[in-house]
Design goal:
heterodimer; A: 463 residues; Rossmann fold; 2 domains; 6-stranded mixed β-sheet; 4-stranded antiparallel β-sheet; 14 helices; 17 strands; B: 325 residues; mainly alpha; 15 helices; 2 strands
C-alpha cells in the first residue's frame, strides 16, 4: 500500500469503480451534433463558419475568443445547419453550431491509425503551436487551455510535470481505461509536455486502487526507455486529483493562496490531456474525441460502459445508445459524484471535458434532513484546504465578509468534503460557495479601486 | 424519469448522522453499564433507567410545550446524556435524586441554551455536580461492590476519598494506596460511581469509538499525559504526601471523564491544537484539585471549568490552512 498522499484533510468515499473492466467502445455517429462554443475555461470561441457551409471532421469551426480560449473543431463531416443558442447541461443558453452528419470524412493530414509515433518534434514553439491549433484543453475538469499552461510566464521555471492519474472521484473509470488501453500514447504525450517545459522531472501519479494501471504504466515506461520519468503510486484519498492536493502529495510543496502551481515549480496535466497532446502533436488530430463513463449505483455492471465519444453528441443520444436511463435514477450527474454537475437537461451535448453520465439512486444521492450543528468538527477535519466550514457557514449567515476573508473562504476548492462528512446534513458547501463569491467580488473591487487610485495619482502628477 | 433531482455538488454523503454517532456512543458505553448493573445489582439498573427516561422525557416535553419545535429526541443525544449521568452517580442514589439530576442536566444545562449543539457545559456533568453540591451525603456514599442481585453490599469511601481523608488528617497516603491493587482496578471492581466500575470495559468502549472514528484520541491522550507528568513530578518529590501516576490514571472518574465526557463534541474545541490545550487544562486542574483541593475527585470540575474556556480556545486555535503561514 502506498503511503504517499496529501497532508491536510480528505475523505474516503467508497470508490465504486464498477465500470473499470469495461473496455472502451466507439460510439456510432448520431444524425446531428451541436458543438458548444464554451468547451473550455475562459472566453467562448467565435464561430468561423456560416450556415450552409460544408465541413470536414477536424476542420476549425471556431477560433479563440481571447487569450484564455481555444480553437473548436468539427467532430464530424457534414453541413452547418444553424448557429444559435442552445441550452447546456445546467439549462443556460450558449451558442452552438449545429452540424448535420454526412459520413465521416476527415481533413487532410490527420493520422487516424493506431501506429505509435515516438519521434518528438525538436522545436518547442512548433509543439506549442500545434497544441494550440488542435484546441487541446485540460481534461481533468477545469478545461484550462493547455498551450497557456505549458507556456509559463518568463522567469518561472517548471521543476516537475505531474501527470494526474489519481481519478479520485468515485465511479469514474475513463482515465483508468485509457491508462490501460493507450498507455504508451499517454507516456509519449507526457514526454512531449516534458520537452516543452524544458526537460523537467515528470511524475505519473496514480492512486493505489488502480494497481493494473500502475503496472501497465511501469511496463510501458520501461519499454519506451524514458529516464527522468517515473510512476508514483499514491494512497487512495479524495480529493487527491485536486491540483493543489496532488502537488502537496507528490512534491511536498503547497501553492500559496491565489498563486499558480508554477510558483512552486509544478505543472499538473491530466491523463486524458496527455493523450490529447499526443494525438495533436504526433497525429495532427484535433481534440474532438474523449472518453466518458456511463455508470451509477442503479445500473447493472453489464449496462455500464466506457465510450469514446465525439464532442457535440447529445447526452440523451448516449443514454439511449447505452440502454436508456434506468427507472430508479433520481439524479443524473455529469462528472463524479463529489464535484460533478447535476444534469437538468439531458438534451445538452458533450463537450471536450465530458467525463461521465452518472446515474445515482435516490437512496444514494438525496440529501438528509438538516439538523443542528453538533460541533463535531468533522467538516474541518475533512477540508483539504484546512478551512473551517462550520465557522465559514456561521460567518456567512452573520454576513461578516471581513472575517470570511480572514478565514480564507476564497481558498475553497468546492470539493464537497465538508458537506459529504457533515452528520447534521448542513449544506455547508452551498453557503460557502455563496460566501466565496461575495469575498472574491470584494477582493476584485478592492484591486480595481486601488488600480484606479494609482492611475488617478499618476495623472495628477503629470499635471 | 418523470422526477429528477438537481442540486449542487457533492451528490453523495458519508454514512454518518447525528443519530448514528450518538448510537455509537451508547454502544461504547454498554459494556461498562452492563458491568456495573451486574456488580452493583438492581439499584444500578434503577439509576440508569430513571436517568435515561427523565432525560429523554424532559427533552421531549420542553420541545413540545415550551419551544414548540420539532422534537430532537430521535437523535439519541438525550439518551447519551442520561446514560452518562447515571454512570456518574453512586448506584445507591435514590430515584428522586437521580430525577433531579437528570432534570438539571437536560432542562438547565442543555435546553436553556437552545438544545443540541448550543450548550456550553457538558449536561451530564452539570447534573452530577449539581447533585454533588446539593446532596453531598448521598453523592459520597459509595457502595463497595458486594456481589450480584440481592447480595449484601457494604457502603464506604472510594480510594480517592480515603486518600483525601488521609491528607486532611496529615497521614501518609502510602498506607491507603498500598491496599489498592491495580489488578483489581483493571479487572475487578472498586467502590465508585455506577459507571466507574470497570476501567477495562470503559477503555473497550473508547477504543470502539476510535475505530468507528467517532472521536479522535488527542483530547483523551493529552489529559492522561498531563496527569501522568504532574503526578510523577509530585510523587517523586514526596511519595508520602502525593499519590503515584498509575493510581491517578486509574482511579475515580479519570477514565470515564477523559474518554467520554471531555470528548463531547459540543463542549470541546474543534481544532486539534485547541483540543490538546483543552486536555492539558483538564489534566492540570484535576491534579490540583486532587492534591490540594478539599474535594477528593476533580475530573468533573476540571472538565466543566475547561468547558467554559472552549469559545476562547476556538477563537485562537485554528486548523493549519493549506499554503498559508
Amino acid at each position: 500500500m502506498a503511503k504517499i498522499t496529501f497532508n491536510i484533510g480528505g475523505v474516503h468515499p467508497d470508490d465504486s469503480k464498477i465500470a473499470k473492466d469495461r473496455p472502451i467502445e466507439v460510439l456510432p455517429l448520431p444524425q446531428t451534433v451541436w458543438v458548444s462554443m464554451a468547451q473550455h475555461l475562459g472566453a467562448p470561441a467565435k464561430p468561423v463558419v456560416a450556415v450552409g457551409d460544408k465541413v470536414l471532421a477536424g476542420q476549425v469551426i471556431a477560433e479563440p475568443g481571447g487569450f484564455i480560449s481555444a480553437f473548436v473543431h468539427s467532430p464530424v463531416s457534414g453541413t452547418v445547419k444553424s448557429i444559435a443558442p442552445r441550452k447546456d447541461l445546467a439549462g443556460n443558453n450558449m451558442t452552438h453550431i449545429e452540424i448535420a452528419v454526412e459520413g465521416d470524412e476527415w481533413v487532410e493530414g490527420v493520422d487516424l491509425s493506431d501506429t505509435l509515433v515516438t519521434a518528438i518534434p525538436e522545436d518547442r514553439q512548433a509543439i506549442l503551436d500545434k497544441i494550440k491549433a488542435c484546441g487541446v484543453v485540460g481534461l481533468g475538469g477545469a478545461t484550462f487551455p493547455t498551450h497557456v499552461k505549458l507556456n509559463p510566464a518568463p522567469g518561472s521555471v517548471a521543476e516537475c510535470l505531474i501527470i494526474n492519474g489519481a481519478e479520485c472521484e468515485p465511479f469514474l473509470t475513463s482515465d483508468y481505461r485509457i491508462m490501460l488501453e493507450k498507455t504508451k500514447e499517454i507516456i509519449v504525450g507526457a514526454a512531449i509536455m516534458q520537452k516543452v517545459l524544458g526537460g523537467c522531472r515528470c511524475v505519473i501519479a496514480i492512486e493505489d486502487n488502480k494497481p493494473e494501471a500502475i503496472s501497465a504504466m511501469r511496463k510501458a515506461l520501461g519499454e519506451l526507455g524514458y529516464s527522468n520519468m517515473e510512476v508514483l503510486p499514491l494512497m487512495k484519498k479524495y480529493p487527491q486529483g485536486g491540483e493543489k492536493q496532488l502537488i502537496d502529495a507528490v512534491m511536498h510543496r503547497q501553492v500559496g493562496s491565489g498563486a499558480l502551481p508554477i510558483s512552486v515549480g509544478a505543472v499538473v496535466q491530466n491523463m486524458a490531456t496527455a493523450l490529447a497532446v499526443y494525438e495533436a502533436v504526433q497525429k495532427n488530430k484535433p481534440l474532438v474525441t474523449n472518453t466518458l463513463t456511463v455508470t451509477g449505483d442503479c445500473l447493472p455492471v453489464e449496462k455500464q460502459h466506457n465510450y469514446l465519444f465525439r464532442i457535440g453528441m447529445p447526452l440523451s443520444y448516449i443514454a439511449e445508445y447505452a440502454g436508456g436511463v434506468p427507472g430508479d435514477a433520481a439524479k443524473i450527474v455529469s462528472g463524479g459524484p463529489m464535484m460533478g454537475k447535476a444534469i437538468a437537461n439531458l438534451d445538452a451535448c458533450t463537450v471536450k471535458g465530458s467525463s461521465s453520465l452518472l446515474y445515482l439512486s435516490e437512496a444514494m444521492t438525496k440529501r438528509g434532513e438538516q439538523s443542528a450543528c453538533i460541533r463535531c468538527g468533522k467538516c474541518a477535519q475533512a477540508c483539504p484546504m484546512g478551512l473551517e466550514p462550520f465557522l465559514l457557514y456561521r460567518l456567512y449567515k452573520a454576513g461578516n465578509t471581513d472575517e470570511l476573508e480572514k478565514n480564507a473562504v476564497h481558498d475553497c476548492i468546492e470539493c464537497g468534503c465538508c458537506l459529504y462528512s457533515c452528520p447534521a446534513n448542513i449544506p455547508l458547501l452551498d453557503y460557502i460557495r455563496q460566501a466565496k463569491g461575495q469575498v472574491l467580488g470584494i477582493i476584485r473591487a478592492r484591486a480595481a479601486a486601488a488600480k484606479a487610485a494609482a492611475e488617478a495619482a499618476k495623472t495628477n502628477e503629470k499635471k | 424519469m418523470d422526477r429528477i433531482l438537481v442540486s449542487p455538488n457533492p451528490h453523495i454523503h458519508a454514512p454518518v448522522s447525528t443519530r448514528s454517532l450518538m448510537r455509537d456512543v451508547v454502544i461504547a458505553l454498554l459494556p461498562a453499564s452492563l458491568v456495573s448493573v451486574i456488580y452493583y445489582g438492581l439499584p444500578a439498573l434503577v439509576v440508569f433507567a430513571v436517568s435515561i427516561i427523565t432525560c429523554v422525557g424532559l427533552e421531549y416535553l420542553i420541545e413540545r410545550f415550551l419551544m414548540h419545535a420539532p422534537s430532537t429526541v430521535g437523535d439519541l443525544s438525550a439518551v447519551v446524556t442520561g446514560l452518562l449521568l447515571a454512570m456518574n452517580l453512586p448506584s445507591s442514589t435514590p430515584w428522586w435524586v437521580v430525577m433531579i439530576g437528570a432534570a438539571v442536566a437536560i432542562g438547565v444545562a442543555k435546553m436553556t441554551f437552545g438544545g443540541i449543539g448550543q450548550n456550553v457545559f457538558n449536561p451530564a456533568l452539570v447534573g452530577r455536580v449539581f447533585l454533588l453540591v446539593s446532596f453531598p451525603a448521598i453523592m459520597t456514599t459509595w457502595v463497595i461492590p458486594g456481589g450480584y442481585f440481592g447480595a449484601d453490599a457494604v457502603t464506604g469511601a472510594t480510594p480517592l476519598g480515603l486518600v483525601n481523608e488521609a491528607i486532611l488528617q496529615g497521614k501518609s497516603v502510602t498506607s491507603v494506596v498500598g491496599d489498592f491493587s491495580y489488578c483489581d482496578r483493571l479487572f475487578t471492581f472498586m467502590g465508585g460511581s455506577a459507571g466507574e466500575a470497570s476501567v477495562l470495559a470503559l477503555l473497550a468502549g473508547w477504543i470502539y469509538l476510535l475505530v468507528r472514528r467517532v472521536v479522535r484520541p488527542h483530547i483523551t491522550v493529552s489529559i492522561w499525559a498531563t496527569v501522568a507528568v504532574i503526578s510523577l513530578i509530585f510523587w517523586l518529590c514526596n511519595p508520602e504526601r502525593f499519590t503515584d501516576p498509575l493510581f491517578n490514571l486509574l482511579s475515580g472518574g479519570m477514565i470515564l471523564g477523559s474518554c467520554f465526557m471531555a470528548t463531547d463534541y459540543v463542549t470541546s474545541p474543534m481544532s486539534t491544537k485547541g483540543g490538546i490545550i483543552f486536555g492539558v487544562g483538564i489534566g492540570f486542574i484535576t491534579m490540583m484539585i486532587r492534591y490540594f483541593g478539599s474535594y477528593p475527585e476533580g475530573v468533573s470540575f476540571a472538565i466543566l471549568i475547561m468547558n467554559a474556556t472552549v469559545p476562547l480556545i476556538n477563537m485562537f486555535c485554528h486548523q493549519k490552512k493549506y499554503g498559508r503561514k
